[in-house]
Hints:
The chain is an alpha/beta fold. Helices cover 44% and strands 15% of the residues. The chain has helices at residues 28-38, 59-65, 104-118, 127-132, 134-175, 198-208, 221-226, 241-247, 269-274, 286-295, 308-319, 344-350, 359-366, 371-382, 411-419, 440-454, 458-464, 466-474, 478-500; strands at residues 4-7, 13-17, 20-21, 47-51, 70-75, 89-92, 121-125, 178-182, 189-192, 213-217, 233-236, 259-261, 276-282, 300-302, 324-327, 390-394, 407-410, 430-432. The strands form 3 sheets. Strands 8, 9, 10, 11, 12, 13, 14, 15, 16, 17 and 18 form an 11-stranded mixed β-sheet that branches. β10, α7 (221-226) and β11 form a beta-alpha-beta unit. α5 (134-175) packs parallel to α19 (478-500) and α6 packs parallel to α15. The termini are far apart.
Amino acid sequence: xxxxxxxxxxxxxxxxxxxxxxxxxxxxxxxxxxxxxxxxxxxxxxxxxxxxxxxxxxxxxxxxxxxxxxxxxxxxxxxxxxxxxxxxxxxxxxxxxxxxxxxxxxxxxxxxxxxxxxxxxxxxxxxxxxxxxxxxxxxxxxxxxxxxxxxxxxxxxxxxxxxxxxxxxxxxxxxxxxxxxxxxxxxxxxxxxxxxxxxxxxxxxxxxxxxxxxxxxxxxxxxxxxxxxxxxxxxxxxxxxxxxxxxxxxxxxxxxxxxxxxxxxxxxxxxxxxxxxxxxxxxxxxxxxxxxxxxxxxxxxxxxxxxxxxxxxxxxxxxxxxxxxxxxxxxxxxxxxxxxxxxxxxxxxxxxxxxxxxxxxxxxxxxxxxxxxxxxxxxxxxxxxxxxxxxxxxxxxxxxxxxxxxxxxxxxxxxxxxxxxxxxxxxxxxxxxxxxxxxxxxxxxxxxxxxxxxxxxxxxxxxxxxxxxxxxxxxxxxxxxxxxxxxxxxxxxxxxxxxxxxxx
Length: 504
C-alpha cells in the first residue's frame, strides 16, 4: 500500500493511490457527508465500521447520523495513521509480524465488539478505497464474514446452554436435601484435574494425604477412587451432559465426601438428594442469588471461568491463605493420552470401538491439538496471582507448556514442601448450614416464582435468547419488531413449559 497526498480545491488534504483519488479533488467534506447520508441501514447500529476510510472525512457525518454508535475503520496499511484519532478504533487488516495477510482481523473485530456488537454493526466500504485496493477489500470482507460466523455460533451455543442451565437451576433448588457451609481452609490445597500427569502424582499424593486439603474436579474423581485416595471435596461446575457421566461414580464411591455445585451444574438428581451439597454461586448469576436469598440459603461465591480448573483455583485462593497445588493440569495431551485413566467418557467411548473404527483411530483424534486447551493455557499464563503461591506438579516427562506465574514443581520437591506441614485437624472445614432447608415444595415454588418473575425482564431475554433479543432491539420496522416479539414469546413459553413441566 502506498498513497500520495495533495490538496483539494477547497484547501483540504486529499490522497491518491494506484491511480485512484481517495477523496474529492474539490470538497472532501461534502463527499463524506453524502457517503454518510447514502449509507443503507435497515437497523439501528451500535457500531459502524468503514473499510479503509482513509483520511476520515466521513467520520463526523456518520456520528451525526448514527448517534451513539462507535465509528471505526479497517486499515490496509500505515499511510493514514495520523488520522486514526478521528475514529473510535482502527483495525489493521495485516499482521504486524510478517506483513502477510492472515485471519487475525476477525479476532480483532470480535475482541472489540463481541458477538452482540458484531450483530449490531453496520459494515461499509469507502468506494474509492475499494477501487484502489480490490484485493485487500475482498480480504477484509472475508475476515468480517469469519467474525460474523464465529458470533453466530457463539450466540447459538449460548442460547442452547442457557436453556439447559436454567433447567438445571430449577432441578437443583427442588431436589437438594442437605446443604453445607464452608470455613476457611488452614492447610495447603491440592486441586486434582484430569490431565495425564495425575497418574504420576498418585503415589506422592498418598504420602502427604494427611497434611493437605484435596479437591477432586469431577473428571478426576474416577482416578482418585481407582487409586483409593479420598478427597475432602468433589467440585463440578459444567452444565452439560458429560458432567453427569463424571459424577456417576459418586453413586457408590466417596459417599461421605461433600459435592460442590453451582445451580446450573448438571448433576444426577439422586446425588442432589443423597449427598451433602456445598452450594456455589457465580458472581454474575443474579437469578440464583435471588433464589438463594428467598430461601435463606448460604452459598460460596465463585467466579465464572472458561475452565473448571480456573474457577477452582480462584475459589481456593479466596478460601485458603496457604499454597495451592495442581495435579493433572497438563492442558495438553501427553504420552499418547488426553486424560488420566480411568476416565468416564473415555471408558464409554472404548465400548464403541470396533473393527472399522478401532481404538487407535479414536486415540489419535483425542491427542490432536485442542483449541479449547490452548485458550485455557493462555488464561492461566496471563492470570495475576498477586504474590500468591500456586504450583503445578510435574512428572518425569514434565510439561509441553508453561503457565506464567504458576510454577512447576517436581514430585520430590512437592513431597518435601508438604512434609513440613502439620497434619490436618480432624474437624472438617464444612458443616451443616444453621438455617434448616425449606421443604421441597417450598423450594420448587420459590424457584419457579423467581424464574417466572425474571422471565418478564429484558435481562432474561438478553441472557436466554441473545440472538432474538438483538434482532428485536435493532429492528426499525414495526412489523418486523412485532413478529420478532411473537417469536420470542412463543420460545419463552416453550422454554418455561420445559423447565417446569406444565403450561404456565
